[in-house]
Design a protein that fits this description.
The complex is a heterodimer of chains A (217) and B (263).
Chain A (H helix, E strand, L loop, with lengths): L12 E5 L7 E7 L2 E11 L12 E7 L7 H17 L9 E10 L4 H16 L7 E8 L5 E3 L3 H6 L2 E8 L5 E8 L3 H31 L2
Parallel strand pairs in A: 4-5
Antiparallel strand pairs in A: 1-2, 2-3, 3-5, 6-7, 6-8, 8-9
Helix pairs in contact in A: 1-2
Chain B lengths: L8 E3 L7 E2 L4 E3 L24 E2 L3 E3 L3 E4 L3 E6 L11 E5 L12 E10 L2 E5 L6 E4 L19 E8 L7 E3 L11 E3 L4 E4 L2 H8 L4 H9 L2 E5 L4 E6 L2 H13 L5 H13 L1
Parallel strand pairs in B: 1-3, 4-8, 11-13
Antiparallel strand pairs in B: 2-7, 3-6, 5-6, 7-8, 9-10, 9-12, 10-11, 12-13, 12-14, 15-17, 16-17
Organism (chain A): Mauremys mutica (yellowpond turtle)
Family (chain A): Belongs to the RNase PH family.
GO molecular function, one term (chain A): DNA binding
Chain lengths: 217, 263
């Protein structure tokens, strides 16, 4: 259908590992102008009503920039929680809780993907056992079917459909997919392929960030 | 973007000393004859050494799966091991402590309930400490432990399925330095990697600090350090140096010590 831009057209991203002193792990992820701060606590004490006998209870709290968290945030929290649960080895810490608190610092498009990236970096900073890494990639389909990766807020508003994927680092499997708008099955497959290609750049960046953190010690 | 540096499955020896991320697979040198289903007997069969899979690694089909991000380390087996023994582990920086059997930790007594004390060790659950687990304690002669006291002890039970239990005596019944820590001094928290660095043999930081002022120090593997020097000011100085030396290089440390010893 439409042609996609050659290679990955992701905005510039940067990340800071461990900016916060109090949580067990923290990360600040910046994608273009979208910025999210993640704080991780775990494995910590859990209320008896929420404890699971065989694995860790993962909780995600997404705090918007202004106002109280609403239904939109609850929906995003569940998506992020399911992705993290698929990746964290919860069976190693039964009857504990792993809490991820995400604070939106600025939102300029591709917010869910930025939250996923910040959560993954935070999980690594906290030293929680994971079977793979994951990253978030957003695709926007405009009226002609052209795919734009990592859209800005304006591109998201004008797009016919906005799809967000969580891609795992092991064989680029798709962990989570959420769509807003309409698209055909072929377009969905093309978006998945484009997102998988772009995720390579993000995983490369993760590796560089962790190398930089360990080179200081 | 060139993804050439993306590591798929690489042999474990090549990655020692490098940063590994969760999801990386490390291939182990496999013996071509070694087959899981067969048992080779006879004088000609090579005996593979036992490989220990340390923290941050899990064994998967092809080799070892990395579960925590950090530097990969390897230790050769001592003595009559072969080339395929030894231990691999991942050195990662973490703040949260997970109880491990045999670790010596500093805990804070939170509840005194009948026969046991509940001790907060910084993990997901509080550890239980029986009142008989002190040197010279009997049913008539109870130890003098109050809520809020600091305890230095070791874990006898610590796994993911059970509540951790700690004791203040070693296997022969002697205290060996464990027990209630005195009421003065300062307790503060550092990251687990720093504790391991400080407890390594011939750590220069402690030797240099010892030349500055005399002090008493207790390290808990759960990231807690207790310090007591002659005056409160000296105690605070020692505590600040220990907290800061995680982020300082060796030269910055010598500069800081030089500035302090002038005073």
């Amino acid at each position: 259908m439409g042609s996609e831009p050659g290679g990955c057209a992701l905005r510039r991203f940067s990340c800071e590992l461990g900016p916060l002193g109090r949580p067990d792990g923290s990360a600040a992820f910046l994608q273009g102008d979208t910025s999210v701060l993640a704080g991780l606590y775990g494995p910590a004490e859990v209320k008896v009503s929420k404890e699971l006998y065989d694995k860790a209870t993962v909780e995600v709290m997404l705090k918007p920039k202004v106002g109280l968290p609403g239904v939109f945030e609850k929906n995003r929290e569940q998506l992020i929680r399911k992705t993290c649960e698929a990746v964290i080895l919860g069976a190693l810490h039964p009857r504990t809780s792993i809490s991820i608190v995400l604070q939106v610092i600025s939102d300029a498009g591709a917010l869910l993907a930025c939250c996923l990236n910040a959560a993954c970096m935070g999980l690594m900073d906290a030293g929680l056992p994971m079977k793979s890494l994951f990253c978030g990639v957003t695709c926007a389909l405009d009226a002609t079917g052209a795919i734009t990766l990592d859209p800005t807020a304006k591109q998201e508003k004008e797009a016919r459909a906005v799809l967000t994927f969580a891609i795992s680092s092991v064989e680029r499997q798709v962990l989570m997919c959420t769509t807003k708008g309409t698209c055909s099955v072929e377009e969905l497959q093309q978006c998945i392929a484009a997102a998988q290609r772009a995720s390579g750049a993000i995983f490369h960046f993760y590796r560089d960030s962790v190398r930089r953190k360990y080179s200081k010690t | 973007m060139a993804a050439a540096a993306e590591a798929g499955a690489l042999p474990a020896e090549e990655r020692v000393g490098q940063v590994v991320l969760p999801g990386d697979v490390l291939l182990l040198p496999s013996h071509p004859e070694a087959d899981g289903a067969r048992l080779w007997l006879g004088p000609g069969a090579a005996l593979p050494g036992r490989l220990v899979c340390g923290p941050g690694l899990r064994s998967c089909g092809a080799g070892l799966l990395v579960t925590k991000g950090g530097l990969l380390r390897h230790r050769q087996p001592g003595g009559a091991g072969g080339g395929s023994g030894g231990a691999y582990w991942v050195d990662s920086q973490q703040k949260r402590y997970v109880p491990v059997k045999g670790d010596h930790v500093i805990g804070i007594v939170t509840i005194k309930a009948g026969d046991i004390f509940k001790v907060d060790v910084g993990g997901s659950e509080q550890a239980s400490l029986s009142y008989l687990a002190f040197e010279g304690a009997t049913k008539r002669n109870r130890p003098n432990v109050q809520v809020g006291d600091l305890i230095y002890g070791q874990f006898v039970v610590a796994n993911k399925d059970m509540e951790p239990e700690m004791v203040c005596i070693d296997s022969s019944g002697r205290a060996n330095g464990m027990g209630v820590i005195g009421h003065e001094g300062l307790l503060f928290k550092v990251s687990l990697g720093l504790i391991r660095k400080l407890l390594a043999p011939n750590c220069e930081i402690i030797q240099e600090l010892g030349q500055l002022y005399p002090f008493e120090i207790v390290f808990g593997m759960n990231g807690r350090i207790w310090v007591k020097a002659k005056t409160i000011q000296q105690t605070l100085i020692v505590a600040n140096i220990l907290e800061a030396c995680e982020h300082m290089t060796a030269e910055q440390r010598t500069q800081a010590f030089a500035k302090l010893s002038e005073r």
